[in-house]
Amino acid sequence: MCTAHIMNSVKNRMLSRRDLFRGSAAAAAATAAGGLIAPSAALAQGHERVEDLTHLLHEGFPTFSGEQEFFMDEVRSFAEHGYHSFDLRMHEHMGTHMDAPLHFAEDTNSVAEIPVPDLVVPLAVIDIRAKADEDPDAQVTPDDIRAWTAVHGPIPPRACVAMLSGWGAHATSERFRNADDSGVMHFPGFHIEAAELLLEESDAVGIAVDTLSIDHGPSEDFAVHFAWLGANRYGIECVANLDRLPPAGATLIVGAPRFARATGGQARILALV
Ligand SMILES: [Zn+2]
Asked: Is 74 part of a structural domain of the chain?
């Protein structure tokens, strides 16, 4: 097949797709005028809105290592090829992403092996913003979890428990890593005793943080990673917009990749409120 033929068929497809868009836009306008916009199935079941808990990923997004870990190489362009695409190259653990158990423990689930029901779960949001404002090394402690359960009841079955430290607002600046002169980072995370409490007293499937790591910045032993992922549970890091959610009642949707043997990966994280 010659290049001209490909170009023509691409052009024809684009034209017919434009017609399709025009058609659906007209249909949407007609529906809106009649006030008949049908909610999606999940929203129809009683959710009011969907929040995006995913940071916009770009080459400059701050990473745990401090090095660039996301690369976009343009391999096709409209001008040259008639269509547009990139090759992506990325570390598994950057941007808003999943830590699969296999990241820190052998013979546990890869990201592809996490059971699908564990990717759509109730979300408990533990708000430690007040102490994180005072101390960037603040941690979610057993007391923080008990304060949540005192108000909202037990951690829901198969839940994800998220730390809201306020750090999501720093994702566009150096403050996200908050490295000191010796390179040690200072940001909030889970205390090992909080992780142990959740392992003992709940069947939570995941923990999530709005910082670069489920262990707080200065951690040297990664105790939470070893304990939590070692128990075949998952972590989610660099979560955005947790401040838009209620402490209890939201449903988390984890769009983790299905890459064979992968220890995690960039994920689209949504919440139904
Ligand atoms: Zn991690």
From this structure: no
pLDDT on residue 35: 46
Task: Name the residue among 137, 141, 178 with its Cα closest to residue 161.
Answer: 141
Do strands 97-99 and 234-237 pair parallel, antiparallel, or not at all (unpaired)?
A: antiparallel
Does residue 72 sit within a domain? no
29 and 146 co-located in one domain = no
User: Which pLDDT score is estimated for 88?
Assistant: 97
The total number of structural domains in the chain stands at 2
Ligand 1: distance of its center to the CA of 239 in Å? 12
Ligand 1 centroid to 92 CA: how many Å?
10
> What is the distance in A from the centroid of ligand 1 to the CA of 213?
5
Same domain for 101 and 24, yes or no, is no
pLDDT at 43: 65
Q: Are residues 31 and 101 in the same domain?
A: no
pLDDT tens digit sequence for 129-156: 999 999 999 999 999 999 999 999 999 9
Quote the domain boundaries for residue 15. 1-38
Question: Residue written as tokens 């979610």?
Answer: 140
CA of residue 110 to ligand 1 center, whole Å: 14
Same domain, 101 and 228: yes
Ligand 1 centroid–CA 22 distance in Å is 44
Which residues in the chain land under pLDDT 50?
1-2, 15, 17-18, 20-35
pTM: 0.85
φ/ψ of 243, rounded to 5, equals -70, -10
Quick check: is 78 in a domain?
Answer: no
Distance 85 CA to ligand 1 centre (A): 30
d(CA 188, CA 239): 13
